[in-house]
Write a sequence for this structure.
């Protein structure tokens, strides 16, 4: 789900001729807050769902809740794929549009 959301956002970025997402986060501090807010709005539900599913799993299978493990899992299944996909798909989408 995170990859699909990132793909959609990257296509929108390419249409608006924005630079790749991660590049903008690090190289344009004046845009950073807006980009983080936009990204968080896109990925929040997936992140929250990952947390809920992991907490339920831990309680049912392990009988205990490990918060650091839950946060690590949520970041690795929601945020990292979102960042990578949105950053890679933008230039690829621009390239594909320019070759038409």
């Amino acid at each position: 789900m995170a990859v699909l959301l990132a793909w959609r956002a990257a296509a929108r970025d390419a249409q608006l001729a924005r630079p790749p997402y991660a590049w903008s986060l690090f190289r344009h501090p004046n845009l950073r807050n807006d980009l983080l807010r936009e990204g968080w709005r896109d990925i929040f539900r997936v992140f929250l769902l990952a947390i809920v599913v992991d907490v339920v799993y831990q309680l049912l299978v392990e009988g205990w809740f490990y918060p650091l493990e839950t946060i690590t899992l949520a970041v690795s299944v929601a945020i990292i794929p979102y960042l990578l996909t949105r950053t890679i798909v933008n230039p690829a989408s621009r390239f594909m549009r320019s070759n038409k």
In short: The CA atoms of residues 6 and 86 lie 5 Å apart. Helices lie at 2-15, 21-27, 29-62, 67-98.
